[in-house]
Here is the input.
Amino acid sequence: MRTTDLSVAAVDDLTLRGYEWLPDAGDPKGVVLIAHGMAEHCLRYERLATALTGAGYAVYAYDHRGHGRTATENPGQMLGHFADSDGWRLVLSDLHTMREHVAREHPGRPLFLLGHSMGSFIVRAYLQRHGADLAGVVLSGTAGDPGPLRLGGLAVAKAEARLRGRRTLSPTLDKLTFGAYNKPFTENGTARTDFEWLSRDPVEVDKYVADPWCGFVCTTQFYGDLFAGLATIHDPKRVATVPKDVPLLLIAGSADPVGDEWKGVLRAKRQFQAAGVRDVRSQLYRDARHEVFNETCRDEVTTDVIAWLDEHLAPAPTNA
Here is the structure.
């Protein structure tokens, strides 16, 4: 696998940092653009990229604003903060910027998006605006509408931003969002770490805990942006704008609390189907937790994803 450090200018002159991973030889048969989750960074997908490039795909991944190197290598940026205002729109714009970059690098190649967790939410919102001409989309660890949690979280985020400032970290919202996730994995009221809900593999969990770019608390404004963005992806009128011919694959673990132990994933699937999207598939991994690409069954997951990508390879439209 050939690895290249990536720097791409966003619309507001922020530099998006990431990686380009290419097969060792030959032209790629397709391209996968990865949108990572909340409080993590794109280098965590290097193992997946190794498998994808081995299967003949070019892989691109970048750190969202407020995450990884995009946060730490841009003046005025900080971990856990999209922007002082309009952060959700900027994050969607960043994904479009990366898509255009990838399309220029690999004209005519089928392009797939892969979003995990928060990245899946970003991709779902993006599909409502720019879903045309994609070869397919993989949504990992996605969820249905949290309803009262979303509405309550947005109210708290707005109140905290007014009282404490937009760039203030919010342990309250962090606990509101993630506090219950670890409870199913405790014994006698205690857990080995606060992140057992991520994976059954203790090595992977420990790597996450030790990573300074993972598991951080986000700002009041970040949560306001996120909860407002979640409202758009669950709005039936907006979901109806998703192109009907874009293939979708939803993957999740049956013990993933983000997806409400699969029930939320099925709600998302049914919403796409109700909107008329014709090719919507789902794959459940029994007993797996949130990060299926870092789970004990990760090889099975990766094999399934590659098989799905191969099945949906087709020449990109000439106007892509």
